[in-house]
User: What shape does this take?
Amino acid sequence: MRMTGRLTALTVGLLLLSAQWPAVAGGGFPFQRERRIRLPAAGPVHALLFDPQTREIYAAQGRRLEVYALSGARLAVQRRLAGTVSALARNGAGEIVAAVRAPAQLVFLSARTLTVEHRRVLDTGPPTALLYDRGADMLFLESRPNGSIVRVDPATGRPLGRVQLGGALGQMAGNGRGTLYVADATRDALQVIDARTMRDDGSIGLRRCRAPSGLAMDPIGRRLFVGCTNGRALIVDADLGFTFVRLPIPGGPQLRAAFAFHPWGAQGWKGGAFFAGSEAVAAIQMQAFVRYRDHGQLPLPTRCTALALAAPAGELWIALAPPPGGRAVLWALGADRSEGE
Amino acid sequence: MNRCINVLRHLVCWALLGLTALPQARAALVPWSALAGKTVLFVTGGANAPQPNDDTLVARHLRELGLRVHTVDARVSPSAAHGAALIVISSTADARVLGNKFADSSVPIFTWNTFDYPNLGMTGPVLHRDFDVIDPVQHYADSFSVLYGFGANVTSEISRAVGLRPQLFGTLYLEPQTAGWGDPGPGGTVITDFFGSRHDAGVFTYEREATLADGHTAPARRVGFYLGSDNFHLLTAVYGPAARDPNLRRWAIGLKLFDAALRWAASPPPPEPKYDPRALDAALHRAARGRKVLYVERVNGGEGRRSDAHIVAHLRRLGFTVTVADQTAPQRIARGMDLIIISGTCSKWKLANKYVDVPVPLISLEGLLSDALHFSGRDRYVDYGEHGELLESVDPPENYLDIVGAWSPMAAGLKPGLVKFTEHPGVLKWAWPLPDATVIATLPNEPREDAIFGYPKGARMADGFIAPARRALLPLDNPSYDQMTPQGKALFDAVVLWTLGR
Assistant: This one.
């Protein structure tokens, strides 16, 4: 792996610790910014992915795939792929799966060295999102331009089934038991897919939610966290299709959602859902499986293009779109200990 | 051949005429389209409403149903309801400010303002006994109980619209919530209840002219609903693939129940029956043609012998074909019958469990059979009993009934209140049926001792028994028929006519 001195200087040099910056959390937002990494290349970061031990984070920016150590935010490894990487996932074997937009393909890489293990050329349209459902051992590939989702073999990338949904698809979430949910901005709904057959199983209408795009799931409580363009987060009981909580979040298109239990350890919250959009990132605290509360927002200087949450490490990472003439930035947020949660 | 066709045509005509003469169990709800554009006066707490609340969501929901919503606060003048199709009262409105201003309103009321129930006469006045609000802070454990309702009534229009079954269902979504209950008066209909007790009704109704808890009659339909101020959005429902699962669909019906109860309240009530014994007699004549009645009595049964003979004669005069059977006759004789009447001369010991499960409409003139027939529970003198029986009753002889369900065709058009049933005080039986029964009359000053009531077919009766056909109680002790007043005889005829229906 080659790492240029220029990159090292840029990444390490742009690292700042929270002690040097005043906390920017507003309204009880439970994380504070601890590190900031300005990336060397222009263009947005399309995907972030933690390693299972949450010691490193993978960032896909254009053709580049980079690995940063969480401690110190040091660039550890990088790899240049054949095309723009649109999404990342980790399969059951621990490989990194990168979806490359053009030429459309899945690239399987070793997690430590980012060595390309094998590839699978895709004829299913340009991939825009990946989801590995660990509980069901299923890998899904979304193509927004095509409005389709393909289930592929998580080890080889071989297509196993496809569903054509149409419309503007957003994030996917799996329940670990063979059901896939997809945010559908065109129909203000969640599409429900029987992942074993890749059959469209109908949709869950989302009242008073416009153009949902962000989606995350709590597979234990079977709750779906939906981010809506009109500034509402909906919490939907996946079994009943019933929306039982509506909370304010930042609006705007292409929201990103993430959920984790105990986002900073067993003593902290029971669970947390986070929504990032064009203006801010919002926190929703899970107090119980049936009780949630709005826990504030943190303003963002530019649009969030990727979001990753590492519960064991208590880290929330946000990729920010480059400002005009600038470069993309990663924010690493850590628990705001001053809040005493 | 032509003669055969003519005879057949004749028979069909008479059968149709007979059917049209028979009263339905309940009138159908009007479709939503018929309510589109109707005005709803939505009474809320306005600026003083507790926060958070769901009044805005409710108003939006009402508009989505096609209604025009005029939102006012509790200080509104009662005259504001003029022209409205429905008054909807939120629990955010201060019941003390509301007072009884809408109690006499001839506009139907749908309310989840539990503390306002007594103001409207829908329950008694005593908190915790007649009504209550379960608060998840003050009554944490109980607040879990009110997440589940029970389908106490499965035959009302609301119950049918919802597909309510005699089983538990989810009311509010999972999290302990505020919910209210009320114990309705004698003319009330409990649709759902909490805690396994019909006294703790989550949803209950009064038909127009039904007797309220305070003794007045409802000037228009009234509905009490269990909702709290801020949990409309948690009324259960299923969406998406879950809606295809019948078990989930029957469990999560909170919102459906709200909508059905609202629609019932806004639907026009059935026309008020008029007391017209001649018209009733004519209707019974039409209904009787071609119909067979099994009259079960203690043949040669002592003091009731003459009364039995006169009842049979009356039925035959009406046009029924009457078969008289002794109480010991086997049940199979009921086959092919259109109506079974069990005389007060029958002995419970000899009749045993006969006719309980026969899918033929049945009237019992003997209240003490109520436990065996699943009309009521089994605790004698608590679930059923009698007034005026020497040694067996502490209550004096009685000859009046209190009409509490004047709206029903079973009430023969008699006005609410006391009616002289027999000329002289004597024995009168009673029972306390389950909420699926329509109660027509109670004994005076005994709102829980129901003398005349009927269960529609499919109704939930005692012990989980489902009525295989209509069932009714009419309390005629052995010799009483001959002592009946004209009003009493009209009640007899009206009960026969109703029970023959489907």
